[in-house]
């Protein structure tokens, strides 16, 4: 009982640590600590990763960048334009971080790709879906339809390529002998999604 009480007291402390400014966006409770949810890091930076490493260096050199299931502090510059500590928080700085380096700042869930609702009655429990499943050809179509906000598929309206990378060479859509492959795997890139499919994000927008 006493140790349980201790945990309750400790929880707010660790959550203050994660965002530095108590930013609980893109986090979850893992049973003992507040940690980054998959949605925190399940996107690409908008600008190059190398730019983001320069613009948003770790607050101290020994702190890794945000990772799923971890409680590393976000880079200070995701929240401020000041280098002095304690630094003032600027809303513009956060908005800029989301618009440029959401992955580096662990703020993917604030981008438009995550701004919709999962189905109310999904075929699978969206909260258990991992980043690996979001990339898996076996899962992607179901996840685009049922759990778009978990995987960052909100901009796709349920129409997704089963395998990443089709868009790198759209000419495959018209390559003789590839029809069956693209119908199965490159439905978005090759415009093969049935128009009658109900977009899962419509209700959330
Ligand atoms: C998420 O970020 C927004 C914008 O900075 C902020 O207003 C809000 O309080 C944050 N939400 C949580 C749960 O920390
Ligand atoms: C929760 O996350 C913290 C920080 O990463 C870790 O130390 C702890 O072992 C995790 N707890 C569980 C139950 O996974």
UniProtKB/TrEMBL annotation:
Signal peptide: 1-16
Residue span(s) of domain ShKT: 116-154
Pfam family, one: ShK
Keywords: Signal
Keyword Signal included in the entry's annotation: yes
Entry annotated with the keyword Repeat: no
InterPro entries tied to this protein: ShKT_dom
UniProt-recorded name of the protein: ShKT domain-containing protein
């Amino acid at each position: 009982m006493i140790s349980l009480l201790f945990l309750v007291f400790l929880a707010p402390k660790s959550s203050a640590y994660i965002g530095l400014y108590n930013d609980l966006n893109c986090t979850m409770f893992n049973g003992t600590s507040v940690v980054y949810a998959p949605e925190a890091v399940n996107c690409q930076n908008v600008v190059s990763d190398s730019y983001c490493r320069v613009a948003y260096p770790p607050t101290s050199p020994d702190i890794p960048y945000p990772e799923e299931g971890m409680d590393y502090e976000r880079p200070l510059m995701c929240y401020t334009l000041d280098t002095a500590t304690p630094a003032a928080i600027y809303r513009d700085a956060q908005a800029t971080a989301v618009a440029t380096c959401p992955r580096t700042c662990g703020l993917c869930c604030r981008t438009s790709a995550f701004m919709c609702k999962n189905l109310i009655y999904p075929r699978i429990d969206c909260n258990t879906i991992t980043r690996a499943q979001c990339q898996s050809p076996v899962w992607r179509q179901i996840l685009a339809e049922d759990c778009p906000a978990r995987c960052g598929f909100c901009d796709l309206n349920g129409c997704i390529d089963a395998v990443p990378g089709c868009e790198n060479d759209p000419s495959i859509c018209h390559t003789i002998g590839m029809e069956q492959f693209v119908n199965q795997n490159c439905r978005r890139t090759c415009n093969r999604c049935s128009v009658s499919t109900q977009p899962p994000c419509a209700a959330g927008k």
